[in-house]
Amino acid sequence: MAMEQKVERQLFDEVMVPCYSPMQIIPVKGQGARVWDQNDREYIDFAGGIAVSCLGHCHPVMVEALKAQADKLWHLSNVMTNEPALRLAKKLTEHSFAERVFFANSGAEANEAALKLARRYAADRFSADKSEIIAFKQGFHGRTFFTVTVGGQAAYSDGFGPKPGDVTHLPYNDLATLADHISDRTCAIMMEPLQGEGGIISPTPEFIQGVRELCDKHNALLIFDEVQTGNGRTGEFYAYQGLGVTPDILSTAKSLGGGFPIGAMLTTAELATHLKIGTHGSTYGGNPLACAVAEAVVDEVSKPEVLAGVKEREQWFREGIATINAKYPIFAEVRGKGLLLGAALNDEWQGRARDVLLAAGEEGLMVLVAGTNVVRFTPSLVISKEDVDLGLARLEAAIAKLYNA
């Protein structure tokens, strides 16, 4: 047998499309909220694979579900259904407003399904002219051509030729502008109930309430992209449940599989009738492996003590960051909810979020950014107090170095 080639970071540049610029370290194993690289160096994980590893790494309930299903059935196709998909769909309807579920493999695909459903519903029920989709500046909805166009960051969708049409971008949290613009031609408003990539921006109560009312007035569907906020991330199973506003369609992914690729679009029985046989599909969507893992994740995350624990952990982070900031004032505020938090840099530190990320990496801590001015934290929802304290100590060491440089 040939000797296994030693895998080095340089290999990335030789074999991978250069649309990413990964750090030099290559993690090889994880346990809970800790990760080890090839040199056995330990890192505390406050990133969670961008709000994905909601139970940390190699959580026993996930490992067990995967191993058990691996010996049974991996894939059929949607010519037949399967038990894990049906069990998972039932649980998602029990934990939300939804009555019907469509499974995909990613958040972008769940959003694609949501947008296609909204357009089809408007065409069926009203007219082909009712096709405008309103979304928000700095919003993020995925990387397929439709979802990236609906997302509110033109830099991600420019340069690929003509874009899907009839998409309007308005400022988030600006109800007056939305009220001015929306019309009976609007088929849907798509939004994150807490903007993630756009800088961890929470909606005001008036805005979120007003969006729902305007949708009702103009027969437009309200689509909540809960890819990043869903599955316990904000301390509710879905973020909408803490906002007192219910969408018509909801997309979920990221934390849903705890690291195994899966996405889902959730909606009502009435709306679901518009995706008749043949109107949409997915080869891998609803595959038994993904659904078995996601079912285990949902069972764990939906426990009242886990959801309550998210709110408790939010306070650990807020207090810890405030303590660091009292010594090394680089942050203006901490935004967000639950364990989707963003520490926004103050005026003197504008544009330096990535510096913080890299400095933290050198101290053995994984964090994220949301734009150039926000350091983002999306750790495991069950991270221990010990790991939070240790991670915050490493964050302080990183910030101290930058501050005193």
Characterize the structure shown.
It is found in: Cytoplasm. It comes from Photobacterium swingsii. With 405 residues, this protein is α/β, with parallel strands linked by helices. It folds into two domains: 9-59 and 304-404, Aspartate Aminotransferase, domain 1 (Alpha-Beta Complex), CATH 3.90.1150.10; 72-301, Aspartate Aminotransferase, domain 2 (3-Layer(aba) Sandwich). The chain has helices at residues 9-15, 48-51, 60-70, 83-94, 107-125, 145-150, 154-157, 175-181, 205-217, 269-272, 288-301, 304-327, 353-362, 385-404, and strands at residues 27-31, 34-37, 42-45, 100-104, 132-136, 167-170, 186-191, 221-225, 249-252, 263-267, 331-337, 340-345, 365-366, 368-369, 374-377. The longest helix is centred in the C-terminal third of the chain and has 24 residues, at 304-327. It is globular, with a radius of gyration of 21 Å.
CATH T-level topology of the largest domain: Aspartate Aminotransferase, domain 2
Shape: globular
Indicate the mean pLDDT: 97
Number-wise, the strands total 15
Whole-number total of structural domains: 2
Low-confidence spans = none
| Estimated share of beta-strand residues | 15-25%
Write the layout of secondary structure elements.
Elements: H1 9-15, E1 27-31, E2 34-37, E3 42-45, H2 48-51, H3 60-70, H4 83-94, E4 100-104, H5 107-125, E5 132-136, H6 145-150, H7 154-157, E6 167-170, H8 175-181, E7 186-191, H9 205-217, E8 221-225, E9 249-252, E10 263-267, H10 269-272, H11 288-301, H12 304-327, E11 331-337, E12 340-345, H13 353-362, E13 365-366, E14 368-369, E15 374-377, H14 385-404
Parallel strand pairs: 3-13, 5-6, 5-7, 7-8, 8-9
Antiparallel strand pairs: 1-2, 2-3, 4-10, 9-10, 11-12, 12-15, 14-15
Helix pairs in contact: 3-11, 4-11, 12-14, 13-14
